[in-house]
Amino acid sequence: MILVIGGLGSIGSHTARALLDLGESVVVTAHRSSGLPEHLAAEPGRIVVEPLDTNDREAVLDIGRRHEITGIVHLAAARHDLPDPIEYLRTDTSGLLNVLEAARAWGVRRCAVASTIAVYAGVDEVPWREDAALPVVAPHQIPVFKRTAELFAALAGDSAGFETVSLRIGTIWGPLGLPDNPFFALPRLLSAAVWGEDADLTPPRPPAYAQDATDLCYVKDCGRAIALLMVAEHLNHRVYNISSGRLVPYSEVVAVINATVPGAGIVLPEGRDPGRPTDNHLDIGRLRQDTGFEPEYNVERAVPDYTDWLRRHDR
After folding, report:
1. Cβ atoms 282, 295 nearer than 8 A
2. pLDDT digit string (tens) for 92-104?
3. Rounded CA gap, 5 and 92, in Å?
4. 3-class SS at 249?
5. Is 28 helix (H, G, I), strand (E, B) or coil?
6. Within a 13 Å sphere around the CA of 79, how many CA atoms are in the beta-carbon half?
7. pTM over 0.90
């Protein structure tokens, strides 16, 4: 069985779904909620939900005493908005170390750990590739921890003899994601249109201009990419970018939202956000070569799919 820690969240649940589709059985952990989302609910006997706080070492290790875990996908994280960076780093570091200890104790084949596109802050290369030299910068607590997590995982795996994979995950949106995302405006624009609300992108919400562009990946593609990395017979690397492999203009997304949601009528200011860094995206050549991954959800398919989900779920 493959253990997906944080498996009831947006990325985690879609990773679990993709693993099930590939014939795997799955244990997913629940911290803040325990109900299975609809895309996992119809799998009796193939999926198990375990309550877990990753900071509880014994609880983490106990999962492997009750289930035959052959691989781990670690996606759980502290709240992104914790105001104290020391508390954030302590929480996530403790959880990560407990997971790596479990991987060693259980003798798993492969352990994947979530990283982020934000580790490329300060890299001028276009597009961003996994072999880029990463500057030593500390723009935010999330990329600081994620870059460190990559090193922790590599060291632990090399020492104990299990494979580690660091997942540099791009800008993800879709079902169970934050409809009012603090890092990019597109989820807010779509959810407000679907629910008939004012999008209101005044600070602290991020702005949106027509020529802004982002490394946009639909969560179902993200989950499938992670699942393919977990089941691949052989991997040539231990760091992989996870995304669509292209830069998506905000104007392209808004045009599809306006065509999908009657009366949306979203109009973005022309040009680029003057305070926005240069737009860039992740190269996914490694992912393609080692797993055969190709994105299935372009903007024209993703927006209607997410719209349908938002219409069927409460705010």
Report:
1. no
2. 999 999 999 999 9
3. 13
4. strand
5. strand
6. 7
7. yes
